[in-house]
Structure formats: C-alpha cells, structure tokens
Amino acid sequence: MNQQSEIKPNSRIENVSTWIAAAVLFAFAGLVWLPALGTPFWGDDYVFLLGAYEANISGEPWWSAFWPETPYKFWRPLSQESWWRIVEAWLGADAKLAHWANLAFLVLAAGSVGLFALALGHACGWSQPVATAVLGGVIYGSLALHLLPVHWAAAANSSMLVTFTALTLAAWVAAPQAKPVPRALLFASILPLLAAALFCKESAALTPFLMVAVTLFIGMRYPSRGEVVVWIACLGLVALWLVLRARFTADTDPNYDLVLGTNLIRNGLSLVAWLLNVPREALRMVLTHETGPGLLWGAATALLMTGAYAIAICKGLSRITPQQWLLTLLFVLVAYAPYFPLAWNSYAYYAAIAAILPAVILAGGLAGRRSAIVAAVLIGTSSWLAVAGTRWLDHPGLIGRAHWAEATFQSLDNEPIGSPLWVRVEDPQRFYAMGAAGLAWRLGLEPESVHLVDTFPEHAEHCLIFDREGGWSKARCES
Fold it and tell me: Does the residue 479 lie in any domain?
C-alpha cells in the first residue's frame, strides 16, 4: 500500500506535466502563427485569384476543375482551382480571411495527425494514447516547416494534403482493431479520403506505401481480407489518378525537373534541416554572403529541436523498438521521395507528410514524462526563432519580399496606369512577389494587357521600370 501511495502521486504529476507541455506548445503555436494573418497576397496568389475570378464571372461549372478542357500546370482541383474560387467569391478576395483559412487548415491538419497518433497508440498498446495524440497534434502544428502554408495563401494545399493523408492513415490503422460495423465504415472511408488527398497534391500517390510502412510499424502479421481488398483498391485509385493527371496537366516549370545527381544529397540534407526546424532562409544565407549569421541561426533552431528529440529518446527509448525506428526512417524517406530528385526547388513544407510519424514518435517519448514541459519549451522556442526570424528579413527573404510587393502596390494605387502596360524588371527574383498577374489584379487591368519586356516597343505609351533596389518609376517608353 505504501508503495502504491508513493507511485500514484508521481503518476499524477507526470500526467499533469503532459497536459502542461501541450498547453505550452499551443501557446507557442499562437505566438508563432497569429502574426501571419497580416501577410498580404503575393506571388502565385494573384495567378489563382485571376483564374478564380474569370471562372466565377463566366459561370464556369464547379465540376470543370476536376475535368478541365485546358490542361493545368498542376492538376489540384480541390486545393487550388475549387478553393480559390471560394476565396474569390465567398471570402471576397480578402488576404486576411484567406490567411485565417490557412491557419484553420493547419489546425485541421494538426488535429488529424492527433487522430492518427491516437489510432497508432491504441494499435501499438502504448500506455497513454490520448496524451500522445494531444501532444502529437500540437507538436506537429508547432513545427516551423508550416511557415509557407500559413503565410502564403497559395500553399494551403499542403495542410489540406496532410489532413486527408493523416485521416486515411488513421482509418487504416484503426479499422483492424474495430468491431465489424465501425470496421466496415473505416475501411469504406479510406478511398474517399485518399481521393481527396490526390485532388490536393501529387505526393498523395505514395499513401498506399505509407500504409504498408505504418502496418509494419505496428507489428508483423498476416493482413485480413478486408485490408488486402482496400489496399489493392487504393493502388487502383492511384493508377486511375495517374492516367487522369497525365491527361489534365501540361509541361511543368523547369524548376520542377527531376534529376539524379548531387541534388539528391542537397535535398536529403534539406530534409534533415526541415525536420530540425532549420528555416530555409538560414540555408539561403549560408549559401550566399551571409554565411556566419545563417549558420548561427540554423544551428540555434536545430540544437533546440535536437534537445527535444534527445529528451524524448532518452525517456521513451523503451517504447520504440529498433525495427520501429527503421520503419520510421522508411516512412520519412517514402513520404519525401518525390522531392529528392528535384533539380532546384526545395521548401520546408515539402516535408509536411514526412514529419507526421516523427512528430508522433516524439510525442510518444514525451507523454507521461515530467521532462515533457522542457521539451515543449525547446520545440516552441526553436519554431519561434525560425518563423519570427524569417518574418524579420527583408528581401531576398520570401516574407519580406511579399511585404515589399504590397507596399509597392499601395504606392501605385493612386497613379494613373494605362493599358496596355509594358514593364521592364531589373530583379526578376524580387518581382516574383508581384508578377504580371499581381499588376493586372491590383491595377484593374486585363491580364493579357500587361507585358514583361527587356526593351520597350516602339509607339508604346504606358511603361514601368522596377529597379534592382525595389523602386519603381514611370518611364518614357524608350528602349
């Protein structure tokens, strides 16, 4: 009795520590993400706004996004074409409302990861599946890799993808443990959820292989007939989607070319950086003339995150078998597989699916531990340093560039700008935050009337020059 009376208070203290840790991370998440609501539209946002406006004003049927007559650069009918029509028509093309929606999508994604953690915890027989689920969800939602999905309206597809993928995995894991009727409902939900994920982003095509990795993570066993049938149906759905995608997409941007070379190493190291909360801007600084500050910034975020992992591994090492560690690595590699061969582009949110299982493992190692609070502070501080630091940067930082574009648009608002408009740009990288689509949208011009040129044509009447320092000027239309 004395031994039990000594154990129970300690157990209560450890359980309370878990919930305090979750509350700490939730507070950090608010500190990290709420400032993103002030981000303006930028970059591809204007391309999608123009497309959505034209579709809405012409009365184009909503189903046409799923069966388009004209090929898209990317065929993402749910997360791009349909969603942007909602942003334009229902949200009034309001940037703040669009970013509120992005934040809501992140909350849904984190909650879905929590449901997956709950199902996995029950399937693996972990002692505190509910605490693991709550902690896993808030850890995932706090990670700095969500910077663009919250700050960039065009990246909402990332959080949508995570939501449907995590729910697919949760249903897949929970179904074998459920009674007959719930099992049938869970199995029946998998194909619609997978279809929704495929309509959000291309990397969802690897979900059936993630399902296998998760099944092996739980333990080796013979699959039931229902699991075999559902999994084969998932493969068939992915095959059908691939056929349709080939029909509905055109050639992509050269930045998305796939190459087998040293880029595999670069992208592999980037994946490690994303999982350790290292901001992309720190990597850019390391590769340019700001190597010292970039190294310090990246090291600070990575060391804090490594400290949290170390606490989780040290305290929860017995909960995860060596085979499960290997399968976690397999899950990460499979989830990130589409991005290893990318010739150029590399963004942290590409690791959004790959980070799901590591976040759950991290939560599993911390749940029920007094040290969970310390780990929560480390994770939250790391994310805050990564995200807040990115917001503080001016051009060539992405968010700083977005604010430059908005300030430039505001300075152009009271200027009479005629059409057709000829534009000469001296810094294309900076100008991307504005783009020809942004000029057309903000200046009320027809998209086809804005022309980017190296030299102004003869007899042109309306010309703008954007110089390397970010300034603009009306120009005499002379070459």
Answer: no
